[in-house]
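Record type: ASSEMBLY
Status: queued
Input:
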Amino acid sequence: MSKCKAVMDSQKITEIKIRTKPPVTEEKAQAKPTDSRQVTDSR
Amino acid sequence: MINSLSELYQRFDILYQDILIICKTCTYHDCEGYTWLLPEEADNLGSSKAQIIEINGNCNFINPFVDLIPTNFETMKPQCPLLDNKLCSVYNQRPLVCRTYPVGLTSIDGKLFFVLFSDCQYSMMMSYMSKMEFIEKVLDILSDCSLDLFDNIITTYSAVDNLFKYPEGRNEYEVLASCRDLRLVISNS
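Status: finished
Output:
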């Protein structure tokens, strides 16, 4: 990607959101050891 | 047929292998401007160190203004914040727009075209014959895309293009093919 001369037309901007990383929930965090154990067992 | 974005990345990466040697000697400024993203890329890069901004609910960009407040989206050629010591810090995840440069999309009189930008050492150095060969290979890749993938790219860029303006004029380019014509080729294949 190089030096594109385009800029955004601020008059056309109606909404700006900063996308945040999906939060790691406690449930997902707890799921990891179970998942890895399953992988280990299957080997 | 190319059905997924990762397959498309792979095809362009293979075609561009030889360009990397020339990129190392390029003296043009690099990685400037507003880097637009396909929805899938915004999701993937959003979980990396890149900060993604979503404009008007349907246009995603790498936020070039991480350290700048207030943000002025009319700032010319902001440097990509993911450039680290002149190298891309998300190289393996870099978006399509970065992978295909100097090939890119632009609108002319409201219609979208794939073009070859001229402000690139590779573009400038190619002989007529090698340029024709390169263009043919690019068009082969694009026309090998599935209709869904092609439409995803065009629809996304169309929304981005509507947001853009060019106060200092456009970059120089030569037209490779209209998106409409390419879409017809894909539809008929």
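Annotation: Strands of chain A lie at 7-8, 16-19.
Annotation: Chain A touches chain B at residues 1-10, 12-22 (CB under 8 Å).
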